[in-house]
Amino acid sequence: MILSEQLARAMVFEKIIAERKRQNALKTEGKFTYTAADDVDGFKKLAILGEEFGEVSKALNEGDDLASLQAELVQVAAVATAWAEGLEREMEAAR
After folding, report:
1. Are 82 and 23 in contact (CB under 8 A)?
2. pLDDT confidence of residue 45
3. From CA 86, how far away is CA 23, in angstroms rounded?
4. How many Å apart are CA 28 and CA 49, to the nearest integer?
5. CA separation for the pair 26, 46 (Å, rounded)
6. What's the angle, vertex CA 43, arms to CA 84 and CA 60, rounded to 5?
7. What pLDDT digit, counting tens, does each position of 27-81 carry?
């Protein structure tokens, strides 16, 4: 079965939202001190994003299966989303 572009996008966005929730849960559990959504230095956020991007590179270099590659890309998207969420809150506070 071939998914429509719209359905595939919706499925991926659901995975990104689930990953954002997982990141917040890990922070609450103490695994992370902060996420890219938090009010921390932009270079710390970039380091988080860079680490996740590195995982995508590793998955490609090691020939991981498509599901593993997608999982790493979802993590990149979730970190970028977290950063954008933080910026949205900052911009709203400045209005």
Report:
1. yes
2. 97
3. 14
4. 20
5. 19
6. 75
7. 999 999 999 999 999 999 999 999 999 999 999 999 999 999 999 999 999 999 9
Alpha-carbon distance of 59 to 70, in angstroms, equals 9
Residue 1 in this model has a pLDDT that exceeds 80: no
| C-alpha pair distances (Å), 80 with each of 4, 47, 90 | 25, 11, 15
CA distance 89 to 34: 16
Considering only CA atoms, which of 8, 19, 1 is closest in space to residue 77?
19
Task: Provide the residue ranges of all domains of the chain, joining segments of one domain with +.
Answer: 35-95
10-17: average pLDDT: 98
